[in-house]
Specification:
Elements: H1 2-23, E1 35-42, H2 46-53, H3 65-75, E2 76-77, E3 80-81, H4 98-114, E4 121-129, E5 132-140, E6 146-154, H5 157-167, H6 181-197, E7 208-213, E8 220-227, E9 240-248, E10 260-264, E11 269-273, H7 280-284, H8 297-309, E12 313-324, E13 327-336, E14 340-351, E15 354-366, E16 374-385, E17 397-410, E18 429-441, E19 445-461, E20 464-480, H9 482-490, H10 494-500, E21 503-515, E22 526-536, H11 538-547, E23 558-559, E24 562-563, E25 567-579, E26 585-597, H12 639-644, E27 654-670, E28 673-687, E29 711-721, E30 726-736, H13 754-765, E31 773-779
Parallel strand pairs: 1-5, 6-8, 9-11, 9-13
Antiparallel strand pairs: 2-3, 4-5, 7-8, 10-11, 12-13, 14-15, 15-16, 16-17, 17-18, 18-19, 19-20, 20-21, 21-22, 22-25, 23-24, 25-26, 26-27, 27-28, 28-29, 29-30, 30-31
Length: 783
C-alpha cells in the first residue's frame, strides 16, 4: 500500500506541475499576442449547444495543458520561443486570431440556419487580460421556422412508387415540424439507397432537389422537392447483371504455371486464379451479385463484407462495366494475404506481491484447403514468481503454465445435411479446435488438461448471433502434491482432495446466444444480452448404463477407466446502455449464473467449471478469485494452507454480480488519444450450492442471508481511446466486505485509519494482506 500511496502522490504532484506550468505559458508570447484559454457559446438551445461547439475553429480552441507543456519545454529558451522550433512535439499555443473568430461565428450561424433558425445572430465577444483571451459567442437564435406544406414531384412514376413504398413511411420531413436541413439530406440518402437497391445503378443523389419558400408571413416555410430524370432520358434505367468475372491476383513470387481458368457457362462466370491455390466455389458462395439478378447496392456491400471477413484477402475490389443499355458485367478482383504469418506476444503481470510474465507465439496458415480456411497453431508459456519462497530464482517459481493449441476455421458451415444461413448478416464459420495445458503450482498442484471441440457460429439477423458446439470432448488429470495432499487429509479437507486430486472425461454440448453484440461500441440506447448453456455427461451416462460400465470406490461410473463429468451450467449477461448526450453514457449490467453437478459426480463441481468473483471485468475492488464464496473468511485456514490455496479455495456454483458505470469525456486530445473517465459501483459474490464446513465455512447460498453477503465496491477509471484500442486503468475501492460480520462489513470506515486495521488483519491472515484499493490495468472496456 505504501508503494501505491507514493505512486498516487507522485502522479498528483506531476499533474499539478503540468497544470501550473501550462497556465504560465503566456509569458513566452509577444506583447501583441494572447493565448486562448476559454471559449464558450451562450444563448443556444441546450440540445444544439454541443453540436454548435464543433463549428469553432480548432485554431482558437484552448490547448491541452499537457501537450502545451511539452511544446513549451522543448521550444523555449530565456523566456522566449526559439526561432527554430522542434516540430511534432506537443502542441503549439492557440493564439487569438480575429479572422478565425469571425469565421467560427459565421459557421455557427450557418449551422443554426440549417436547423431552422433563419434569423439567428452570432456576436463574438473577446476579453483579453494578461495575454490570456476569453471568447464568448453570444447567440440570438430568433424564432425557429416550421414546415407548413410539402410539395413532392417525380418526373418518373416508377421512382415515385419506390419513394412511396420504401422512403415515405420512414422520412422525418413532415408538415408542422421544425425545419432541419439534416432531415432533407437523410430523405435524399434514403431514396438514393432504395434506388440503388432496386437496380438503378446510374442514380445519383443530385437528382433530388429541394427548394425552400420562406416568403410566407410568420415563421413558416413551404418545401418543394423535385426528383428529376437524367438529362439524356425520360426515365431512369434499371440494370441487370450479365457476366461475372473472378480474378485472384498474384503480386508475390512469380509463378511458372499458367493461371487456372474455369468457365461456368450456366452461371456466366469466368474464374481466373493466378496463384493456382484457390477454389472458386467457396468464394462464389459470398458473391451476391450474380448473372440474371438486378444490380443492388445492398448486395454489393454484403459481398464486400463477407469476402473481407473470410480473412484471406488483403484487397477485394468490385468493378462494374456497362455492356449495353441495361446490362452490367461484374469484375471481382482479389489480392490474397500472405499465406503464412507469425505473431509473438508478451506481457508482464503482477499480483499480491508476486510477479511474472507470459509469452506466446501464434503461427497461422491461410487458405490451407483452397477455400480461404485458416489454420492457427498457438503456443503460450507463463510463469509467476513469489519472492516469499526460499532459495534462488528457480526456487521462487510459484506456478508455471504451458499451453498449446490448434484451431482450424472454415468460412462456412460444414454439416452432413443441407443448411444455408447465407451469410446475409455475418460470415458463418465452422471451427475445429484442440488445446493442451500443462500447469504446475509449487508443492501444491499439477494439472494436465486436454480439450477438443467442434463449433458452428452464424448470424440469424444483424443483431442475433448463435454459437453451437455439439461436441466438447475433454480429459483432465489433476494431481495434488503428495505431502500437501496428506496435510489436507489430516486437517479434514477430504472434500477438497476429492474435487481436485482426480481424473475425468467430459463429453458435452454448449450453446451461446448474443443479442446486439455489434452495438457495443456505439453510443445509442440499446440492450445487450448474452446467454450460455453448458451440459455434459448425459450421453456418457446413457452409454455406461447400457454397457454396465464399472464404478470406482466413490460410486462414480467410469469410461476407459476414468470417471466422467455430469453437470449443467448456465450464465446470463444483461446490460442496459443509455446515451446521455455527446460522450456521456450510463451502463447497467446484471450477470447471474448457476452450475449444478448431478448424476455421476453430484458432490462438488470441478475447478474449471466453477464461478469466481473479482477481477478487472467484475467487482474491481477485489483481485480475481479473492472474493467469497459467501461469508467465507480465510482465517479459518492454517497459515501454510492460506499460502498454497490462493485462488483455489474461493470458488462457487452460484454467481450474482451487478455493475453500474457512468462514462464521460475528460480530454479530446491527450497525447494523440481521447481520454475518457468513468465512475462505477460493483456488487456481488459467489456461493456454494451446498454447505461445506470443511473447505468454505459460511460459503453456502441461503435466501435469508445472501443479500447480507453481497460485496460492494466503487471506484474511478481512466480510458485512453486511440480509436484502434482502449487502454484502461481502474482503481476500485472496497466499501463492504462480506468476509466480516455485521457492521464490520463496512470496511470503508477503516480507510483513514487503515494502518492499524491492516496490521491486525495481517496478524490473523498472514501471508494474506488487506488492500482497500485494487488497481486494474487492461485493454478494452470492462463490459
Amino acid at each position: 500500500m505504501i508503494k501505491y500511496t507514493r505512486f498516487i502522490g507522485f502522479a498528483s504532484i506531476t499533474l499539478l506541475v503540468l497544470f501550473f506550468a501550462s497556465c504560465r505559458s503566456s509569458k513566452y508570447l509577444d506583447d501583441d499576442q494572447a493565448l486562448v484559454t476559454k471559449v464558450q457559446i451562450s444563448g443556444v438551445t441546450p440540445a444544439l449547444k454541443e453540436s454548435s461547439e464543433t463549428y469553432i475553429s480548432n485554431q482558437i480552441r484552448p490547448n491541452s495543458r499537457v501537450n502545451l507543456f511539452i511544446y513549451n519545454t522543448f521550444n523555449t529558451k530565456n523566456g522566449r520561443y526559439k526561432t527554430k522550433k522542434i516540430r511534432n512535439v506537443g502542441e503549439p499555443p492557440h493564439l487569438l486570431d480575429s479572422a478565425m473568430v469571425d469565421l467560427s461565428a459565421n459557421q455557427i450561424r450557418r449551422f443554426l440556419f440549417s436547423k431552422g433558425y433563419f434569423k439567428a445572430k452570432v456576436e463574438p465577444t473577446i476579453s483579453v487580460s494578461k495575454k490570456r483571451a476569453h471568447i464568448d459567442f453570444k447567440v440570438d437564435e430568433g424564432v425557429p421556422y416550421q414546415v407548413r406544406n410539402i410539395d413532392r414531384k417525380f418526373e418518373d412514376e416508377d421512382i415515385k412508387a419506390i419513394f412511396e413504398r420504401e422512403v415515405l413511411p420512414k422520412t422525418s420531413v413532415k408538415s408542422n415540424t421544425q425545419y432541419d436541413a439534416a432531415k432533407l439530406l437523410d430523405e435524399r440518402e434514403k431514396l438514393y439507397v432504395s434506388m440503388r437497391n432496386n437496380g438503378y445503378y446510374d442514380y445519383v443523389r443530385q437528382y433530388m432537389r429541394a427548394g425552400v419558400d420562406s416568403t410566407i408571413d410568420g415563421a413558416l416555410i413551404d418545401l418543394k422537392i423535385n426528383v428529376e430524370n437524367p438529362s439524356d432520358s425520360t426515365i431512369h434505367k434499371k440494370y441487370q447483371i450479365d457476366s461475372v468475372y473472378m480474378t485472384i491476383r498474384n503480386y508475390g513470387t512469380m509463378s511458372k504455371k499458367e493461371p487456372r481458368r474455369i468457365l461456368d457457362s450456366a452461371k456466366r462466370l469466368l474464374f481466373v486464379d493466378e496463384t493456382n491455390s484457390f477454389r472458386w466455389k467457396p468464394l462464389e458462395r459470398y458473391m451476391y451479385l450474380r448473372s440474371g439478378q438486378y444490380y443492388s447496392l445492398r448486395e454489393e456491400n454484403k459481398s464486400y463484407d463477407r469476402l473481407y471477413e473470410m480473412n484471406g484477402f488483403r484487397s477485394v475490389k468490385m468493378q462494374f462495366v456497362k455492356k449495353d443499355s441495361n446490362k452490367l458485367d461484374v469484375h471481382y478482383d482479389f489480392v490474397p494475404r500472405p499465406r503464412m504469418g507469425n505473431q509473438i506476444e508478451g506481457e508482464y503481470t503482477f499480483s499480491s506481491g508476486m510477479s511474472g510474465f507470459n509469452i506466446g507465439n501464434t503461427f497461422s496458415q491461410r487458405n490451407i484447403f483452397g477455400g480461404s480456411e485458416q489454420l492457427e497453431v498457438k503456443l503460450r508459456y507463463g510463469v509467476l514468481f513469489d519472492p516469499r519462497l526460499a532459495g534462488g530464482l528457480s526456487s521462487k517459481i510459484f506456478n508455471n503454465d504451458f499451453q498449446a493449441g490448434v484451431n482450424l476455421v472454415i468460412p462456412r458451415l460444414m454439416v452432413p445435411f443441407h443448411i444455408n444461413p447465407g451469410g446475409k448478416f455475418g460470415l458463418p464459420k465452422t471451427t475445429y479446435s484442440m488445446t493442451l495445458q500443462l500447469f504446475d503450482q509449487d508443492k501444491t498442484y499439477s494439472n494436465r488438461y486436454f480439450i477438443t471441440s467442434l463449433n458452428y457460429s452464424w448470424y440469424e439477423t444483424e443483431n442475433k448471433y448463435h454459437s453451437f458446439t455439439p461436441i466438447v470432448l475433454e480429459y483432465r488429470d489433476g494431481r495434488l502434491d503428495s505431502n500437501f495432499r496428506n496435510k489436507l487429509v489430516q486437517e479434514g479437507y477430504q472434500l477438497y482432495v476429492r474435487s481436485n486430486d482426480r481424473q475425468y472425461f467430459g463429453l458435452g454440448t454448449q450453446y451461446t446466444f448474443i443479442l446486439n453484440g455489434k452495438k457495443l461500441n456505439s453510443k445509442e440506447d440499446f440492450q445487450y444480452f448474452r446467454g450460455t448453456l453448458d451440459v455434459s455427461g448425459n450421453v456418457l451416462d446413457l452409454i455406461s448404463s447400457l454397457a454396465k460400465l464399472p464404478k470406482n470406490a466413490d460410486g462414480e461410473k467410469k469410461i476407459f477407466g476414468v470417471p466422467f463429468l455430469q453437470y449443467a451450467k448456465t450464465e446470463f449477461d444483461y446490460r442496459l446502455y443509455r446515451n446521455l448526450g455527446g460522450n456521456r453514457q450510463f451502463v447497467f449490467r446484471f450477470n447471474p449464473g448457476i452450475a449444478i453437478p448431478y448424476g455421476n459426480n453430484s458432490k462438488l463441481l470441478i475447478f474449471e467449471k466453477s464461478f469466481y468473483s473479482g477481477g478487472m471485468n467484475g467487482i474491481r475492488a477485489w483481485q480475481a478469485r479473492t472474493l467469497g464464496p459467501g461469508a467465507y473468511n480465510r482465517q479459518s485456514l492454517s497459515e501454510d494452507l492460506r499460502l498454497n490455496l490462493r485462488n483455489l479455495d474461493q470458488l462457487g456454483e452460484i454467481k450474482l454480480e451487478a455493475n453500474a458505470e457512468y462514462r464521460f469525456r475528460l480530454l479530446n486530445n491527450f497525447l494523440g488519444a481521447k481520454m475518457n473517465g468513468a465512475t462505477f459501483v460493483d456488487m456481488g459474490n459467489v456461493w456454494r450450492l451446498k454447505k461445506d464446513e470443511e473447505l468454505n465455512p459460511g460459503g453456502e447460498f441461503k435466501f435469508n442471508k445472501f443479500l447480507g453477503q453481497v460485496a460492494i465496491g466503487t471506484g474511478f477509471g481512466l480510458r485512453f481511446d486511440s480509436d484502434y484500442f482502449v487502454i484502461r486503468l481502474d482503481a476500485g475501492l472496497k466499501l463492504k466486505d462480506p468476509q466480516f460480520s455485521g457492521a464490520d462489513q463496512w470496511v470503508i470506515k477503516h480507510f483513514f485509519d487503515s494502518k492499524e486495521f491492516k496490521a491486525q488483519y495481517y496478524e490473523t491472515h498472514r501471508p494474506d494482506r488487506y488492500n482497500f484499493i485494487q488497481y486494474n490495468f487492461g485493454i478494452g472496456m470492462p463490459f
